[in-house]
Amino acid sequence: MNFASIAYVMGTLLLVTGGSIIFPIICSLCYNNEGDLVSLVISGIIMLVAGLPLWWIFRKNQELNIKDAFVIAVFGWILISAVSALPFMIHGSIPSFTDAFFEMMSGYTTTGATILTDIEILPHGLLFWRSQTHLLGGMGFLTLTVIFLPHGMGGVRIFRAESSPGQVITKEKFMPRNRDTMVWLWGIYSGLNILQVIFLCLGGMSLFDALCHAFGTVSTSGYSPYNASIGYYNDAYFDWVIIVFMFLGGTTFMLFYHMMKGEWRVFKINTELHWYLILVLFFCGATSLILWKESTYPNLTDSIRYATFQVVSLLTTTGFTTADYEKWPEAAQMFLYVVCFIGACAGSTTSGIKIVHYIIIWKFMASSIKKIFFQPMSIISVRMNQRPVDPLTINLAVCYFIVNIFLIFGGGCVMVLVDENMDYVTGMSSVIAALMNIGPGFGDIGPSENYAHISAVGKWFLSYNMLVGRLEMFSALVIFYPSFWKK
Predict the structure, then answer these.
(1) Bridge partners, 383 (sequence order)
(2) What confidence tens digit (pLDDT) does each residue in 178-226 have?
(3) DSSP 97-133
């Protein structure tokens, strides 16, 4: 294991994070320093002072193997979440390191779970820093760092260590050099953020609010500067704009590149996109009909608006809310509970199990039943995007699904054991919300609640689950294998 190269990348991470704090500092100055300027400046200096020696001393060490990449992927996210907690601790708005770390890990992993009981009392600079974690974490913080690394250092390994197994399954690859790929992805990602800011501002939202909500939408994260989330505005225009961009954030980003190249055939043959559209329409339609039938809202239009927003928010693991869905009919809540287990497309900013795994598992089951009962002598292949899927990929999809289920049930048991006042609904839901990077859940962590009441041990456990979910599990779990640390 090349510890010098690992230290170099960690130093680069610290420099990138420390440099990015300039934007919250500018925001603080624009709002006449509401008491957060000093904490932001001190935190930025600490990050730069800590990162510069590592970057300078080890800058000639530019070799990374796959083990190094896994270490960087896991401990890099932990390091950045820890140092990013400094502004809140120095300011005093979140004095506890456990709480501040939880908030930042939630931000970077695009979970959107919060321990803040009153978000609106925070100064604008800290609110911007909080939302900026979504912007940096949405596309993957390490993918941003790869842009600043020297060519040939092994950025592709870092990218794979941080990427979804779904991206391995879909085998999407469109640029010959990894840094070029990252530049294109970040360009598309930034373009969507800018476009949403424009639409929100056209509807009358302030620039600050538009930036914060765009950061939380395209990254499918969910932090809002208001306690009531998007429900603060109670505005149909804002709801539909955010619905559209949550949906786009859940779409494979490679498709946007193909769209810009005029390669429309890719959309026609993309299996996952077709299923994504079908699932969104089905769950939105079913939930809307339930709300309308039960007269939860005065008319069908409002039922469609609120149901669509919440379904797309949870399906894409965004976590924005416009209503307290725990007051909805239980049938509607059941549909919302189901979409929490799905997730959107691989290669997007979303987390969760992801649609591509369900497609492969479903087709594998169907082909197995057909082979066993109807055509025992035939060879039936599973196909995605008009291409056969190899057996190893099928095994990966099945394994990924099974491990997720084990982690949910095992994690739920851990939560009710470490927090004696927690009921099983909240325990299970908190793990689902953390592991799938959703944020709000059911029970005592519902849309009108937060995570402040959870014990310190529970918060650390959920923080790790957020990391497991963001790194798509395997990278965060492999470090516990003793053989991983052997030469």
Answers:
(1) 388
(2) 667 778 888 899 999 999 999 999 999 999 999 999 999 999 999 999 9
(3) HHHHHHHHHHHHTT------S-GGGS-HHHHHHHHHH
Q: What is the pLDDT of residue 150?
A: 60
Report the distance separating Cα 37 and Cα 43, nearest Å: 10
CA-to-CA distance for 228 and 206, rounded, in angstroms? 17
**pLDDT at residue 474 greater than cutoff 80:** no
Residue 389 in tokens:
């899927």
Q: Are strands 387-388 and 383-384 parallel, antiparallel or unpaired?
A: antiparallel
Tokens describing residue 57: 């001393």
Largest CA distance in the chain: 76
pLDDT of 176 reads 45
Distance from C-alpha of 343 to C-alpha of 354, rounded to nearest angstrom: 4
* Arithmetic mean of pLDDT, 257-282: 90
The CA distance from 106 to 117, in Å, is 15
Nearest Cα residue to 327 out of 305, 297, 298, 350: 297
Where do we find the tokens 């149901």?
A: 307
DSSP-derived secondary structure for 278-317: HHHHHHHHHHHHHHHHTTSSSSHHHHHHHHHHHHHHHHTT
Closest CA to 357 of 308, 391, 393, 388: 393
List % helix, strand, coil for the chain (3-state, nearest 5): 70, 0, 30
Phi, psi of 384 (to 5 degrees): -135, 130
Within 8 A by CB and 6+ apart from 97, the residues are: 85, 89
**Given the structure tokens 């594998």, which residue do they identify?**
364
Q: At what angle do helices 155-162 and 178-202 cross, to 10 degrees?
A: 50
